[in-house]
Amino acid sequence: MSVVVITGGSAGAGKATALRFADAGYDIAVIARGDAGLEATRIDCERRGVRVQVISADVADAAAVMQAAHQIEEQLGEIAVWVNNAMCAVLSPFTTMSHDEFQRVTEVTYYGFVNGTRAALAVMRPRNRGVIIQVGSALAYRSIPLQSAYCGAKAAIRGFTDAVRTELMHEQSGIQLIMVQLPGMNTPQFAWARNKMGFAMQPVPPVYQPEVAAKAIYSVTLRPVRELWVGKSTLQSIVGQFLFPRFLDRLMVKKAWAGQLTSEPHFDNQPDNLFTPLQCHHHTHGRYGDGARNQALNIPSDLPGKALSCAAVVTGVVVLARWLQRKR
């Protein structure tokens, strides 16, 4: 059986992804911090008849991630797919976020991907095969208020991934490096993120179930693409940012600030997972399932350019045909 590694795979989209690969017959390795969440994911995957290895490690620790990669290869065998997914966030204006908070989000959400990619390449390059998937977000292109650290990290992941991909292409490597940009998901992260706003956090609609993310992530192992945009809202955000960035700035001020907050009070002493994991039962779904979508339009990132090129060619042919008619 093939082996997949998923960082941050003990809850939310990461856990849904582990279950999706288990359903496809992959042996599963999960790297996360919380023992309770790891154990719950192990049990759920083993019920599907596959081998499972769970490792408690902080993805911000490069040595621990590298060690985990070698442990997985020793126990389960050759890693075919590595999914970088672990993240954390702080909901706060930049000016009220501490240096330590901003640094921690960056260490986990950005450097965690760097460390995971380095570990994956260390075991994949000698055999010149494998797939590395970076779980991104529409926020990698279009930032929103109150999420400066998280948006900065996601944008950094995109830049880092583009650079490493071209290096692999230069080497004529057989390793695929893919980024999957997700929309707002109904996951527990909104209950676990550090929140300094006084009101409970929610995903900006439209919201999708985590199985949508899992299906998209799994799909790129079957049909590799450079980058996959999941959901119409992701497509709109990315294309809109290129075409109408100032308009989207104003729209984010109007919609995204209040859109991330509910009317439910949130108190500063409520636990979060920024520096320490929450030792509780980790779920795949969050509290925002009402109206959450189970299907999404998936668009490869090169499709809009191809469509535009085709439209330009068709327009050119039509113009040329009319010009030739007039010449007659």
What's the SSE blueprint?
Layout: E1 3-7, H1 12-23, E2 27-32, H2 35-46, E3 52-56, H3 62-75, E4 79-84, E5 90-91, H4 99-124, E6 130-137, H5 148-170, E7 175-182, E8 184-185, H6 189-192, E9 194-195, E10 199-201, E11 207-208, H7 210-222, E12 227-230, H8 232-243, H9 245-259, E13 261-265, E14 298-300, H10 303-327
Parallel strand pairs: 1-2, 1-4, 2-3, 4-6, 5-9, 6-7, 7-12, 8-11
Antiparallel strand pairs: 10-13, 12-14
Helix pairs in contact: 1-2, 1-7, 3-4, 4-5
Describe this structure in words.
This protein is globular. It contains ten helices and 14 strands. Helix 1 packs parallel to helix 2, helix 3 (62-75) runs parallel beside helix 4 (99-124) and helix 4 (99-124) runs parallel beside helix 5 (148-170). It folds into two domains: 3-296, NAD(P)-binding Rossmann-like Domain (Rossmann fold), CATH 3.40.50.720; 301-328. Strand 6 (130-137), helix 5 and strand 7 form a beta-alpha-beta unit. By secondary structure, the protein is α/β, with parallel strands linked by helices. An eight-stranded mixed sheet has the order 3-2-1-4-6-7-12-14, with helices on both faces. It is 48% helix and 19% strand. The model has no long low-confidence stretch (mean pLDDT 93). It has helices spanning 12-23, 35-46, 62-75, 99-124, 148-170, 189-192, 210-222, 232-243, 245-259, 303-327; strands at residues 3-7, 27-32, 52-56, 79-84, 90-91, 130-137, 175-182, 184-185, 194-195, 199-201, 207-208, 227-230, 261-265, 298-300.
